[in-house]
Amino acid sequence: MFRPKLPDIPTTTVTPPPQHSQAPLPSTGRPVVPYVGIGARAVAAVVVVGIVLTALLAAVAVSAVSVAIAAVVLRSLVSSANKR
């Protein structure tokens, strides 16, 4: 009495779509793969050059900060030595 009744699931037959056979494309005599490889190589080269330039910029920035800190310390030492 208190049990729910589930509706009957209708059975449907699924027909697969018809498969079309395609004729092979005519060959132009030029391979396509080297053009894709050249594009991938160019992208890889640009990425590597970008990483190297970013690393060089970071190295220059760290060097500039360290030179600035050394200059402040030396200036402080020289000014305190003149006061004595």
Give an overview in words:
- By secondary structure, this protein is an all-alpha fold.
- Helix content is 61%, strand content 0%.
- It is built from one helix and no strands.
- It is elongated and about 100 Å long.
**Mean pLDDT, nearest integer?**
81
Please compute the radius of gyration using only Cα atoms.
37 Å
The H/E string reads H
Helix count from the secondary structure assignment: 1
Helix content range of the residues, please?
A: 55-70%
How would you briefly describe this protein structure?
The chain is 61% helix and 0% strand. It is an all-alpha fold and 84 residues long.
List the topology elements:
Elements: H1 33-83
Short descriptors:
1 helix, elongated, mainly alpha, 84 residues
